[in-house]
Write a structure and sequence with these properties.
The protein has 654 residues and is of the alpha+beta class. A hairpin with a 2-residue loop joins β15 and β16 (489-492).
């Protein structure tokens, strides 16, 4: 690693005035960023003092309440970076990113680490002789510039994003340049590399902040490996739409949850939980202020209705154990490329629909906003790569000022919300959101139109309603563009195979985890299908819980009995049987359950069975609470209230 003396000999200064290169904390940040880079990235990092200065500047720029930029930098590369920083600080993207990073050490550090990694990835595209299978599409088209011996510049940073899946680690596919060559590459391509890196780092910082909020993580460096886990989960969220929907549903439910889900209940001087107030004839239960009243008032209360007293709850807090059972309807009209309209069930693979190209594509999905000033919308033909029947599912209606769309609750649509373009599940569209709409009024008409007449305009969302009906649903996956027109409204070809019930139930598990934090309960999670996962011990670490909820795939088969047996064994093993324990079983009940109620009673376990569709009479007889819910926000809040109530028993009083 380069020495501090080398930095001083170079006489380079960073661009921030709040914290400078002379401050020990600044040098520490450079070392921390380097330590958290992959080993092959460090080779490049060590050969450029400027990369270290930019990394530390990135941290303090996003962490500080009021970052100050110096008026000039004598180094050409750092001066160019300073000008870009000033432009960035005046952008909407900076304002959005700062909401995730100000005074948040973890998110700011992730931004600095990912910005450095992304810059190195981008710059290594231009290393002499480094072209190969990892090159971008623009490079593949243009090969090398004549007489230059280096890659042709990509049309935009998005070209590199599109090819990321084929990229290997830098150090394994091309040589590391020497210091002079790296400085030349950095000087020529700083602007595009920095803009690409800022976008990618901002996305990861935003997702990491959202993860911390949903999982109730507080403070910096909560435990070893937090950065690596947050980066891994944030990267996964950027790529997988269903994972984004799970997190968004959990966050939306938490925002609507009772206030006492976030704050511990009030306790008296003896540490007992206070439920509320009631009238008691017993003087020893009366509030102190009742005893301090004038004699005539005191005597009147004593002879009359009684005194105001605190109503208390008793609870022996044990385990909250969650067992988790691991789309357009028929008749929806799809606009074809020839101008005709076909019911979605009649569209065949290989046929061409009229797709909608949104540039840049909203690849970041449900959670990450994109400024409408940066998108361009146009229509063109696209072949149907795959058509999937998603089974019978509940149908919701999106009502707009120009027509309606019927779809499943999790079908993704692009909307404009307060001037920002985002993707949301249909169920989370809000009144006032703007949807993209076919300007020829196809939501109300079956007439055929020419593709060139199929312009895209806007319509306002009035609301989302459940139809109270279920229907056979379909998903179309396109070869390109990923958006098509259904009943006149632009929708995403989600390609989701998991179904909304699975997504919703996993979001509920996250909300129940937050309940366990508020109540200081021992939270445990297992998932099950034909076997119980994990096989060894239940999940208890917050980021491991989130990792499993987002990543563990669904599969066929259900063994409810085995999961209940394992949960009881875990509670007994952890010596929690003298405390109040609750098992929340979330399932569709499709299994022949063989299980006795005696182990539950013996070990002080309340069983709450949440049926997401389906019916199971054995589970009904076993359960203390058996409830059938609709997979929506109200259903999630109902589960939270039932689970919370299972831990508290009101004192009897007279």
């Amino acid at each position: 690693m380069r020495s501090d003396s080398k930095e001083l000999n170079e006489k380079l200064v960073n661009n921030l005035l709040n914290v400078t290169v002379e401050d020990p904390i600044f040098k520490s940040l450079v070392r921390i960023v380097r330590y958290r880079l992959p080993e092959d990235y460090r080779e490049v990092f060590d050969k450029s003092v400027q990369l270290g200065l930019l990394a530390a500047d990135s941290f303090f720029l996003h962490y500080s309440v009021c970052p100050l930029i110096r008026s000039k930098n004598t180094d050409r590369i750092l001066e160019a970076a300073r000008m870009l920083m000033l432009m960035y600080m005046n952008s909407e993207e900076f304002v959005r990113t700062r909401k995730s990073t100000v005074l948040d050490e973890d998110s700011s550090m992730i931004h600095a680490i990912e910005l450095t990694k992304a810059m190195i990835e981008y710059l290594m595209k231009y290393v002499q002789g480094g072209l190969g299978k990892g090159r971008s599409r623009a490079e593949a088209r243009g090969s090398t510039a004549k007489g230059q011996g280096r890659a042709r510049e990509p049309a935009s940073p998005y070209d590199i994003v599109q090819d990321e899946g084929n990229r290997e680690h830098v150090g394994t596919r091309q040589p590391v340049p020497d210091e002079r060559e790296l400085e030349g590459i950095l000087e020529r391509h700083l602007e595009e590399a920095l803009l690409y890196a800022i976008g990618k780092a901002g996305s990861l910082a935003w997702f990491s902040k959202t993860i911390k909020e949903v999982m109730g993580l507080r403070g910096a460096g909560l435990h070893e490996g937090i950065y690596e886990k947050l980066i891994d989960l944030s990267s996964y969220l950027m790529e997988v739409r269903d994972a984004q929907v799970i997190l968004e549903l959990a966050r939306s439910t938490l925002e609507s949850a009772p206030r006492n889900l976030h704050i511990r209940k009030e306790r008296d001087e003896r540490g007992e939980s206070i439920r509320g107030y009631f009238i008691s004839k017993k003087i020893e239960r009366a509030l102190a202020r009742e005893l301090a009243m004038p004699d005539e008032v005191f005597n009147a209360k004593l002879a009359g209705e009684g005194f105001l007293a605190r109503e208390k709850e008793t609870v022996k807090e044990g385990a909250l154990y969650v067992l988790l059972d691991k789309c357009l309807p028929e008749g929806t009209r799809v606009l074809m490329s020839d101008g005709s309209m076909l019911p979605v069930e009649d569209v065949r693979e290989g046929e061409e629909v009229l797709s909608v190209k949104i540039t840049p594509c909203l690849q970041t999905g449900t959670l990450l906003p994109t400024s409408t000033s940066r998108i361009e919308v146009r229509v063109e033909g696209a072949r149907v790569a795959r058509k999937v029947c998603s089974g019978i599912q509940p149908i919701y209606k999106l009502i707009t000022t120009r027509g309606t769309l019927k779809a499943t609750a999790n079908h993704v649509i692009p909307v404009i919300r307060r001037g920002v373009a985002i993707e949301v599940p249909l169920a989370l569209a809000k009144p006032g959101d703007i949807v993209l709409y076919n300007g020829r009024g196809l939501a109300e008409s079956t007439k055929e139109v020419k593709p060139e007449e199929s312009d895209i305009s806007q319509a306002a969302v009035v609301g989302v309603r459940s139809t109270g009906q279920s229907a056979r649903t379909y998903d179309l996956t396109l070869e390109k563009n990923h958006y098509f027109i259904a009943d006149g409204i632009v929708v995403h070809n989600s390609g989701s195979m998991n179904g909304f019930k699975l997504i919703w139930s996993r979001s509920v598990a996250l909300v129940l985890y937050r309940l366990s934090l508020a109540r200081k309960l021992n939270f445990k999670l297992r998932m099950f299908d034909t076997r119980v996962y994990p096989e060894s011990t239940p999940l208890e670490d917050p980021l491991e819980i989130l990792d499993a909820i987002l990543k563990v795939p669904a599969s066929g088969g259900t063994r409810i009995s085995a999961s209940l047996e394992r949960a009881v064994e875990d509670i007994v093993k952890d010596r929690l049987t003298s405390k109040s324990n609750t098992i929340v079983l979330i399932t569709d009940g499709e299994d022949n359950v063989v299980f006795a109620k005696q182990p539950l009673k013996k070990n002080n376990i309340t069983l709450i069975t949440v049926m997401v569709g389906g019916e199971n009479e054995v589970l009904r007889s076993l359960s203390d609470v058996y409830v059938k819910v609709t997979p929506d926000r109200d259903g999630a809040l109902q589960i939270v209230r039932l689970t919370d109530a299972s831990f508290y028993k009101q004192h009897s009083h007279s």
